[in-house]
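Crash report, auto-generated. Payload:
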Amino acid sequence: MSLILILEQVLNGLQFGVMLFLMAAGLTLVFGVMGLINLAHGALYMVGAFAAAAVAGATGSFLLALVASLAAAAAAGALVEVTVIRRLYDRDHLDQVLATFALILIFSEGTRWVFGSFPLFLDVPEYLSGPVTLPGGIKYPLYRLTIIAIGLVVGAGLFWLIARTRIGIQIRAGEADREMIAALGVDISKLYTLVFALGAALAGLAGALVGAIQSVQVGMGEPVLILAFVVIVIGGIGSIKGALVGALLVGLTDTLGGVFLPLLFALMMEPATATSLGASLASMLIYILMALVLLVRPSGLFGGSA
Amino acid sequence: MTRERLINAALLASLLGVPLLAWQMDEPFVITLATKVAILALAGVGLNIALGLGGLVSLGHAAFFGIGGYAMGILAAHAQNYEPLFTWPFLFEGSNQMPLIWLVAVVASALAALVIGALSLRTSGVYFIMITLAFGQMLYYFAISWSAYGGEDGLSIWVRNEMPGLNTLDPIQFFAIAFAVLAMALWFSARLARSPFGLALSASRQTAERVETVGLTPFKLRLVAFVISGAITGLAGALFADLNRFVSPTMLSWHTSGEIMIFVILGGVGRLYAPLLGAAVYILLEHLLGGISEYWQIFLGLLLLIMVLFAKGGLIGLIAGREVAHD
Amino acid sequence: MTDMPREPVLRTESISKSFGALKASNNVSLTLYPGEIHALIGPNGAGKSTLIKQISGGLTPDAGRIEVLGQDVTALDTVARARLGLGRTFQISSLAMEFTVLQNAVLGALGARGNAFSFFRKVMKDAELLARAEEALKRVGLWQDAGKRTADLSHGQRRQLEVAVALTLKPRLFLMDEPMAGLGASGSKALTGFLDELRQEAPILLVEHDMDAVFALADRISVLVYGEVIATGTADEIRQDPQVRQAYLGDEEEA
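Recovered output after restart:
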């Protein structure tokens, strides 16, 4: 087990974490500002990936594909917010869960209807494919490195948006007190639509970026959605900082655990058992992490009181 | 309230009458559909104890459903392959006897519910939803990576398990088993709702602070409710696996959790017979709409959306009026 | 106070609680003796709710200790304190709204029994629980409404039910958070009369805004301002206390 392998896996974990952050950021914003639990967030991830694959197929441009993923997911998000989601803000969590679960069914089957059941493929463009050599002699795929960079830039942009801009001030005020921002004369329903569309756009972007590594298919958003929930539970609901820390923790734990647990077990038992036991345990690792965080801090690392 | 009772009696009578009629007319497929309704309703009866009585929005009940399924799969697989499950402290070769399988399914899912509940009930609201969902997903991935029992492909059983005195391969007899278990579970949940425990649990849902001030602990009440709820859903899982003679990670997937919840909601939260009506409507829709379009779940989604947004009391609420029964 | 027995039923010993820079309770020492009504008054934001929560067990003080019937309960939770005999009514009614009046009272009786883990017996056919609930409802004059849904009760009736649920516990002391709030003049008068008798059974720590009721009922009054008890005494002593007049009449001088 070389140092290079470890570093490579750390980068893989970072890439995974950054992508989870794009998902979790939207979820946690929507929960923090509007108090809504949105199971359909994964559907928006899927919409972004499909839009990117379709546009890339038609134009051949990856950049246009990314723009399309942002636009399509934001538009789908805004549409859903205006027609369904805004009726749910004052409802209890059970209603929110059911209505957004219904949205998943509609989105998933609708996409299957339009695009069929076969996965689409979105190719990494020429100029981003192939490995680059990093200091220390590590060869690492340029595209994955680009995902990390895009994720970090978007993350920084989000922190800036929330800390420094007018909209950010309104968002923070909305988290603190809905009535107050209404009293300040902010158009709440417009703000909510905007926040929801923003979260959707981030999910769509994540879907498109990942779609180029994996395949683009119906249901692709759901495993990611649940991981994003784990991220939020660990980080604390409503906290962007918590989402970032949680996402990186989950990304690194999952990636490193998947690689190194079987190796670690191989030191103690016969290879076949070690591989299967290691893989089983690795698949549970992030949930065990979540359970541990819960035992110590029921409201997450950066959450207020539960 | 009498109206709701009337609806309940009609529901139970239909569930019994339709397959009996199908039996007379030699339509085994209809009997199998009715069996499926009975078993899925049983899973819903389990969830309804946590959700309807206790107000615990668990999005992870597939975990218990799947554990029940795997209890059946594992015991029966060892029995059919003549590979002992364990040899110490005594030789155990697995089993193809339903009563023993059920016992294992109930105990295993109750234990899982105890652990998951003890962790998740430390939180509430949206955290609870996400955490139950996450633990369910954990077991899903565990089952996928557990190659000893089929991994992603699941486990097939050649012959349906046995019940002393009955021929379980005969559809109507297997239906009778499922129906009897469902009827007992409905009776039990009705008793539970009217018991001291049911009163305290329902109060914990409405006003936990009050329950504490009268000297009772909501956490304990909820945990016990969660365990009972998980055990019943686990029993349904064992029966469901026996119906299909197959168990796979799909039983553990969060879509299954969502579907069990849909049964309860379509029927009407807090109504004892809601899971029965919900499961029946769900299976009917699947069967009827599924015949028209491969994409029938779009219509299920739309129906569910309309129910949530505009008809809060569920179907039983629509028919019986909004008043929830109470003595 | 001279004719009172020495052993207090409730004693807080210099308890303090801060939220960030805000000192919600500052060195609060209070006692409640058998047979008395001790009223706690103070302007809004004086820290009455925080203090009540610490006594009932919802909040743990940062410093100091709380004794109930001579036992240190500082580390005990709400449930344990309730079982020791602390009966509480809430400022914002926290009854189970879907239940009938009788069911709410039975819930209290069930709590008094201390064990809710009975799964088959019909709770509304349990003679012992029903008798206890009936007695409490009769005492507050709600028995004729026992079958009503709690959500359909008037505001005043909910207050009565609050007290009835506390009564089913046969508590050793009461903690009542604004029981008169929102009651009309006649309701307020009726409840005043009831509390007047109740004190013989178990003493009452009464948080109340209705000053007529407080001065009519209280054996002693403590005044809480900015988390601090600035005075404790009989109604007359409090009326004449310069610090209290200052706090209530709003002089700007430092106290």
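Post-recovery validation: The first strand of chain B starts at residue 155 and ends at 156.
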